[in-house]
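Page 47, continued from p. 46.
Same chain as before, 429 aa.
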Amino acid sequence: MTLPKAPTVTSHSSVDSLNIANRFESVRKQTEAICAPLEIEDYVIQSMPDTSPMKWHLAHTTWFFETFVLKAFAPSYSPFDERFAFLFNSYYVQAGERFVRHHRGLLSRPTVKEVYAYRSYVDEAMMEFLSHDLPTEAHSVLETGLNHEQQHQELIVTDLKHNLSVNPLFPAYSEQSLPLSADLGALSWHSFDEGIVPIGHESEAFHFDNELPIHRQFLEPFELANRPVTNGEFEQFITSGGYYDATLWLSEGFSKVQTENWQCPIYWITEDGGWSEFTLYGKQPLDPNAPATHLSYFEADAFARWAGYRLPTEFELETVLKSVNTEGHFSHEMIFHPHFSTGDAQKHPFVHLFGSAWEWTNSHYSPYPGYKPVAGALGEYNGKFMANQFVLRGGSCATPKDHIRPTYRNFFPTSARWQFSAIRLTKTK
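Result:
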């Protein structure tokens, strides 16, 4: 197994150790806070191969710290259960063999109680480790681990939503009232001139390897919509026959429409001549003013073509993201549903470039010029997925606010529909 090498001399200060310890504790508690409303039965469901049970997420994020921090940098550490390395490794080939992904829902054991005991055991060992000055190499691994857990916090929300959606009782994760969206009015457009722009992460703050290296891109003049497409606007696409018009779709996308009988976004429900939507608040009337979400790349691209526009490139979107504040609806609100609030209507010029829902770009997820993955097993984190995927930007209502940044490159397969993914239209000037 290839793990980060333990250093021999250089250490971070005790102040750094205290800060990272506080952040570790906060991130770990937030994961469990998201799971707090769940019943024990909710932890073991796996509705499709792309989702995982809640229990597995809790264990996998714990395995990460056990494997890449404690085993690598704490020689006296004794694993909770050696068998868990096989059960809870995800895709790190260099870290050993793995249990079959699409059978995770068959793992009734270890129990949920045992998984929480595993988390407590590793957390205690981690807090002891973090009470000392940290080796330099451990610091970067820790930051990766914390951001990795924040990614899984988002996956817990999106996976849970799909897992619950297959239940005809439409169970609710939250019993609170679903927030309704404000009407932000018709689309408006904001122009950007041509130019050569820097792309990629430019500071020493944490970032993933796929955000580097910094390089230049030429942008043609373009215009970007002030807000994402709404449910009401997407409904017009449906009623106009958009899912049946092959001219609007990429070939693979229209094949998906036909073979999987796509007629509307994944969580929309037609009944009595109207639309409802499955949400984490149960089945709710479709809000026409809310951002249209849970759309595949194919659906986003087809809608843009139908509307007479296009999706932005990731370079266009990054350039605009760097020009605005990181404002939007994020996971700290614990409102896991994209919506526009009344206050959003006063924001100018853009609404929810950050937060609420990830926005598709028409850019393939590819390496930047000169890209090099990090050494060891963590080098498998991003680089190995640079094929057959498209980039999304901006974060969602399930994304922690301190996890996102303008250069963050999320990526998903073109047919994925279970993510909080939306459309922001663009046109070439």
